[in-house]
Backbone:
């Protein structure tokens, strides 16, 4: 059984925006309003304190039970702590309150993908794109789901649209390279990874993927060069690439 050596970019969650002026302060909490708790949750999220963000978004919901943005954000925090089932439940609640909520649909798609439901994730992403067709991140996420099912041509179509909308979208170029790799189009895969690295010279996933595609192209010296670049960026990926050069990756790729 072959190992899947190539790396897709992680799904991209979208943050919910809150119109704080539209949320009245609740008399049961004279100290803070729902909007203030929401703002604290966003600050905690940005500081990567996801557990505290969960606390803040829950407080916002206690004060305002129909606060769709808070439910959406709470679901996203559950995703961050890998409680995917609870994330799905909470994001469905956000969509009950606001059915045409593209951000919640995108984040729901991410959680569904993590629970092994790519078809449902694709449906959520497609609904989100129908609502906000100019969101490049959603198109990239849809492409990731399509790639998981082996629908590489459809994934590439979404990614091409994504980079038209957002030309400096390095994650989309990385995913484009992954799709080309799986189609056996190694030169195009290499060019896509190079473009991702050009946009972000410390993009470890793309550097690693470039090393993998160089092995597929039987350019071992070029793969070693990517290993050298990775050592100071992501030691884990560097070790994986190095081990792969000598412990099976070459054989796997020759059998593709």
Residues:
């Amino acid at each position: 059984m072959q190992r899947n050596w190539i790396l897709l970019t992680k799904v991209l969650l979208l943050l919910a925006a809150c119109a704080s002026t539209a949320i009245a302060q609740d008399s049961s909490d004279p100290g803070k309003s729902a909007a203030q708790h929401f703002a604290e949750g966003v600050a905690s999220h940005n500081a990567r304190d996801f557990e505290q963000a969960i606390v803040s978004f829950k407080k916002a919901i206690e004060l305002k039970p129909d606060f769709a943005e808070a439910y959406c954000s709470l679901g996203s925090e559950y995703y961050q702590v890998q409680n995917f089932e609870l994330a799905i439940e909470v994001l469905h609640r956000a969509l009950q309150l606001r059915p045409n909520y593209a951000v919640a649909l995108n984040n729901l798609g991410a959680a569904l993908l993590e629970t092994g439901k790519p078809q449902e994730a694709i449906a959520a992403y497609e609904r989100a794109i129908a609502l906000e067709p100019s969101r490049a991140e959603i198109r990239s996420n849809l492409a990731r789901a399509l790639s998981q099912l082996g629908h590489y041509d459809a994934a590439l179509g979404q990614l091409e649209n994504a980079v038209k909308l957002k030309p400096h979208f390095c994650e989309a170029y990385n995913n484009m390279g992954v799709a080309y790799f799986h189609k056996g189009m190694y030169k195009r895969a290499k060019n896509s990874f190079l473009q991702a690295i050009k946009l972000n010279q410390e993009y470890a996933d793309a550097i690693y993927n470039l090393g993998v595609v160089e092995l597929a192209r039987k350019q071992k010296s070029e793969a070693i060069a990517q290993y050298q670049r990775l050592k100071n960026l992501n030691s884990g990926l560097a070790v994986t690439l190095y081990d792969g050069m000598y412990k099976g990756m070459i054989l796997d790729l020759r059998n593709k």
About this structure: The two ends are 11 Å apart (CA to CA). The domain at 169-256 is CATH 1.25.40.10 (Serine Threonine Protein Phosphatase 5, Tetratricopeptide repeat). The mean pLDDT is 88.
